[in-house]
Write a structure and sequence with these properties.
Order of helices and strands: HHHH
Helix content: over 70%
Structural class: mainly alpha
Radius of gyration: 21 Å
Number of domains: 1
Shape: elongated
Largest sheet: none
Number of helices: 4
Mean pLDDT: 83
Number of strands: 0
Distance between the termini: 15 Å
Length: 149
């Protein structure tokens, strides 16, 4: 990693935190929206779902719930495990939705996926910048050392 100033490292860490926050809120909103959609599908559906469709609906509801929890955890702790869980359940929900024939809202799903990927990359960058800031702060001060930035 190039020698960055403390200001640059803090700016990069804050930018990563912003993407983590975006991904966290997007996951929570997506989970709420998916949960409402699944519930409404059962309530408003003209014909009752067949027995074969119950596992798909249950899988979608569980994926949405875990996705929301992972988004909440990722926003709170900024750790990579939550980001991995979020990405895994996003893909699982996407696959289950496509198996059910849900090819609608593809641009919205791609948009959420992009935000999730940027949030995941934000967790990686946040950890790196946080470690670099702590290492930079632990170095002894030398007035002869060149300063970057």
């Amino acid at each position: 990693m190039p020698d960055l100033s403390m200001r640059d490292m803090k700016a990069k860490r804050e930018q990563a935190a912003d993407w983590i926050t975006w991904a966290s809120w997007a996951a929570i909103a997506s989970a709420v929206w998916s949960g409402i959609t699944v519930i409404l599908a059962f309530v408003v559906w003209e014909t009752p779902p067949s027995r074969e469709e119950y596992p798909l609906f249950f899988g979608l509801a569980c994926a949405a719930f875990v996705q929301g929890l992972a988004g909440w955890s990722m926003g709170k702790t900024r750790n990579q495990w939550s980001a991995w869980v979020l990405m895994t359940f996003y893909v699982l929900g996407l696959v289950l939705s496509f198996l059910q024939g849900g090819f609608s809202n593809v641009p919205m799903r791609i948009g959420f996926g992009v935000i999730y990927v940027l949030g995941f990359m934000g967790t990686v960058q946040y950890a790196e910048m946080d470690q670099a800031i702590h290492e930079h702060a632990a170095r002894p001060y030398s007035p002869d050392a060149p300063t970057a930035g």
